[in-house]
Amino acid sequence: xxxxxxxxxxxxxxxxxxxxxxxxxxxxxxxxxxxxxxxxxxxxxxxxxxxxxxxxxxxxxxxxxxxxxxxxxxxxxxxxxxxxxxxxxxxxxxxxxxxxxxxxxxxxxxxxxxxxxxxxxxxxxxxxxxxxxxxxxxxxxxxxxxxxxxxxxxxxxxxxxxxxxxxxxxxxxxxxxxxxxxxxxxxxxxxxxxxxxxxxxxxxxxxxxxxxxxxxxxxxxxxxxxxxxxxxxxxxxxxxxxxxxxxxxxxxxxxxxxxxxxxxxxxxxxxxxxxxxxxxxxxxx
Length: 285
Fold this sequence. Notes:
Helices cover 32% and strands 21% of the residues. It is an alpha/beta fold.
């Protein structure tokens, strides 16, 4: 199901044979996870001011590069961190642990990651931090849209790292982002980071109720995406120039149901997008 492959940066990564994609194909797993999720979401700063346990939803556990980046970033800090990792199975993590030396991002945490891989749960005090790491396995897209199924505590930070829209479209639809937004605690500002900068997913996040902005570069990607329930947490919100490009784009209409195909914005979606609070003080595109 997986194979080890050298990325363009020279670092080793994992290729999913099911999805025909390399995870973190540019800078490699450790560097991309650190830049996109740890630095992009300002994880250490958020933990430093958290009054209670800081909760991360790690959507797309895979080989656990993102979870490892978070854990390594805070292990010398004081605070309580809870990571809830979602994926179909633990197979990606098991494969990564078989190749831990080549991948390099587990470090001295590898024995603990092996314990987590076996049981789906880990409680640990290390350095100045306390960690609770839990796995929720199965179909995330179906689970989050079913209000009768628990997703765990509402997150403060979301690592949104499923396979790409072309390989895994069900994870990039408007209904999924609407369901995700409904699961968030309105009294607990949440921020999301993802590697995609595609127009349709950004439109879907906006129409689902998020504020959306540009994220920083990661390896060979010049730009990523950040979203939040609090506009003040975005350093570079999308503005009128992006709106104009979205209006002209041939691939901006949110996906809602199969068959998924790229289309320009419908008049209905354009009016909804233009009415978003994020753009109310923006000049008309």
